[in-house]
């Protein structure tokens, strides 16, 4: 009978056993060495002790994950997103949706207990409050939270999979001025002390953020142009000046002699074309209430006395008015898109093409 093989230490004087284990950090199978200066049996015991510790650690992780809430994961995702996008986008879109809608709704519910039905019920509960496109943003944000939970081993499956936004509150129809009403507004801009802002919005289709970021350095009287290369929005800490929404918004706008006259009349040496009392930039909310609405109410009263009714429109509706007028006058679509900073001519055709059959008939002389 053969004698049992005598255990011998390795070159370092250690007895060693190599065993397969599951790495608790990566979940992958690896081989780990366990050593002893006494015997292989001692090394084997160390392996057995290690397995017990792993099991305890696994139970602790499972127990910890069992209590993780939607709020905990959502706040982490929100914090990680900060700094990867523009501050204003993070503040007005991500933070707003997370803190005002998603976290209050799902709150301290354990994230592993949230199912597809819960996501669909949330979307349905908001369908009368938000448009379909806004609800899709909510769903994207929810998807980011649950995807993070899956990637970190907290849950096994993302409940947002296969959830679709099927309906939402239809956006209110945007109003526009008729060409005649637009002319009334532009004429009043010439005589009102606050008329310059409305003139620029209505005559050239500037957005409010572009208007409020406009400096006198952006105005070139000799070349008869203004340069649009930034936008001003209102963040949590005040005014935020950033690049335009996209590269097409970075543009040069040709201006008329009437505009140049109005600009020179209002050029008081401040940095910003539309400035506050100290010469600095105006917050959008302050400008809207103190400048824009004052002008609009004065304009409406002025024409009302003359028996002419001109409605008050939202600033963004002046941009739509300008596009509508230019398109319906048959102006070149490429020129309109260039001046207004649009990239999509299909959108321009669909939104502003002639919908009035009488107007179409007149345009082709039928």
How would you concisely characterize the structure shown here?
The protein has 366 residues and is mainly α. It is 50% helix and 10% strand.
Provide structural commentary.
The chain is mainly alpha-helical and 366 residues long. It has 14 helices and seven strands. Helix 2 packs antiparallel against helix 3 (87-106), helix 2 crosses helix 5 (132-151) and helix 7 packs across helix 11 (315-328). It is elongated and about 110 Å long. The termini are far apart.
Q: Which structural class should the secondary elements be placed in? A: mainly alpha
SSE string, helices as H and strands as E: EEHHHHHHHHEEEEEHHHHHH
How many beta-strand elements?
7
Q: If helices are DSSP runs of H or I spanning 4 or more residues, what is the number of helices?
A: 14
Gap between N and C termini, in Å? Answer: 115 Å
In percent, how much strand structure appears in the residues? 5-15%
The amount of helix comes to 40-55%
Largest sheet: 3 strands, antiparallel
Chain-averaged pLDDT:
84
CA gyration radius, whole angstroms = 33 Å
Low-confidence stretches: none
Summarize the helices and strands and which ones pair or pack:
Blueprint: E1 15-22, E2 29-36, H1 40-66, H2 70-81, H3 87-106, H4 116-125, H5 132-151, H6 179-189, H7 195-204, H8 208-213, E3 219-220, E4 225-228, E5 231-235, E6 238-242, E7 251-254, H9 257-266, H10 284-304, H11 315-328, H12 333-340, H13 345-352, H14 357-363
């Amino acid at each position: 009978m053969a004698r049992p093989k005598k255990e011998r230490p390795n070159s370092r004087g250690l007895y060693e056993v190599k065993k397969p284990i599951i790495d608790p950090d990566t979940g992958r199978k690896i081989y780990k060495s366990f050593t002893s200066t006494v015997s292989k049996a001692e090394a084997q015991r160390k392996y057995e002790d290690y397995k017990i510790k792993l099991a305890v650690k696994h139970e602790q992780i499972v127990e910890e994950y069992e209590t993780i809430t939607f709020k905990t994961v959502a706040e982490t995702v929100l914090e990680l997103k900060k700094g990867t996008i523009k501050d204003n986008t993070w503040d007005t879109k991500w933070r707003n949706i997370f803190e005002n809608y998603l976290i209050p709704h799902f709150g301290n519910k354990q994230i592993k207990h949230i199912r597809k039905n819960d996501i669909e019920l949330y979307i349905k509960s908001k369908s009368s409050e938000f448009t379909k496109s806004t609800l899709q943003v909510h769903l994207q944000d929810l998807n980011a939270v649950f995807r993070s939970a899956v990637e970190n081993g907290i849950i096994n499956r993302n409940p947002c999979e296969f959830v679709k936004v099927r309906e939402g509150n239809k956006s209110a129809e945007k109003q526009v001025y008729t060409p005649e009403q637009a002319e009334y507004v532009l004429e009043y801009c010439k005589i009102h002390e606050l008329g310059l802002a409305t003139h620029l919005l209505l005559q050239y289709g500037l957005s409010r953020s572009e208007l409020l970021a406009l400096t006198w350095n952006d105005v070139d009287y000799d070349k008869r142009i203004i340069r649009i290369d930034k936008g001003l929005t209102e963040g949590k800490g005040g005014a935020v000046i950033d690049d335009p929404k996209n590269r097409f918004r970075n543009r040069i706008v040709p201006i008329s002699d009437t505009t140049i006259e109005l600009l020179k009349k209002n050029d008081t040496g401040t940095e910003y074309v539309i400035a506050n009392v100290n010469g600095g930039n105006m917050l959008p909310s302050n400008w809207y209430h103190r400048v824009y609405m004052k002008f609009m109410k004065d304009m409406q009263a002025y024409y009302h006395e003359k028996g002419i009714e001109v409605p008050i429109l939202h600033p963004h509706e002046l941009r739509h008015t300008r596009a509508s007028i230019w398109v319906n006058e048959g102006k070149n679509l490429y020129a309109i898109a260039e001046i207004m900073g649009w990239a999509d001519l299909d959108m321009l055709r669909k939104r502003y093409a002639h919908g009035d059959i009488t107007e179409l008939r007149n345009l082709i002389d039928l």
